[in-house]
Amino acid sequence: MERDPAARGARGRRLLPETPAIHEIRLAVRAWLGRHGARSVAVALSGGADSAALTAAAVAEADSVRAVVVDHRLQAGSDVVAARAAEFARARGCGSVHVVSVEVTGSGGLEAAARAVRYRALDDTRDGLPVLLGHTLDDQAETVLLGLARGSGPRSIRGMADFDDPWGRPLLGVRRSVTRAACGELGYEPYEDAHNSDPRFTRVRLRTEVLPLLDDVLGGGVAPALARTAAQLREDGEVLDAAADQTLAAARGDGAGLDVASLEPVHPAVRRRALRRWLADEGASAPTDRTLRAVDDLIGRWRGQGPVAVGRGPRPGIRLVVSRRRGRLDVVFVDQQRCADD
After folding, report:
1. CA 307: distance to chain centroid?
2. Residue range 11-25, pLDDT digits in tens
3. pLDDT tens digits, 61-76
4. How far apart are CA 94 and CA 169, in angstroms?
5. DSSP conformation letters of 72-101
């Protein structure tokens, strides 16, 4: 395998023209590889502009690239699109190319189901490598706006991380217009997914209606500002998460549940983060802000209130609840019918 940086640079110059958009994307990929110590990567390639530009840059900057093309089979001719993307990957010099056909099923709507299936397919095919995704600064801005609409706090508006093992996003500082320009510099006509212009999808309307309107009203620069906000919140969140981990370790001690006395003096912002992690460990998936605050009230606003339901049990009628007894918080399963009979 080629390891010499000079040889790798020479290969990259042969494969890619020295043009502005390609240069910007190569720099972004090079910086990501350096930050995370990655030399061999997989790339999720759809054939669209973002993933195509990313793939070309990754081949120039990494030691080896495994391209993975997921065919969702949601539209007629999707196999042709996948085959064309695979041919692009081979022409650019990917070490291996894999086309994976999937069946999109599941809850949460078409967009969410397709995403879940796609990520499973990528995970199954990456062969232990980090997977580079073509999310751009514009995607980050859209993600922040969606998080604002959910209203679930800073966690929901700090956007996507540049590396959330195994998913890497080198292009979060690159505009979508740059990836399109890069494809033009390569002489490649990117695939245009009809779903990306379908107004039935919320993200499409954010892209085509909301962000342009915000730019018009606020004088431009909205997408970069949202991306900067996400980056700042992510940095703040990392500090708070570290404090929450320490708080949780101290509250757990050697016994079951959590010690209330050790949690009472902790700032609620840190305490609720610790409680969220604890509940996740105990099997309560994605507690809402309302639920989390109700659990926190068992510590900070204790008035002898009853247990707080935090999730479903293994069968109908069984609930997972948090209760406070003898100075500790515990998570237990409760039979609702038995409680009603009593």
Report:
1. 33
2. 443 468 889 999 999
3. 999 999 999 999 888 8
4. 18
5. ---STTHHHHHHHHHHHHHHHT-SEEEEEE
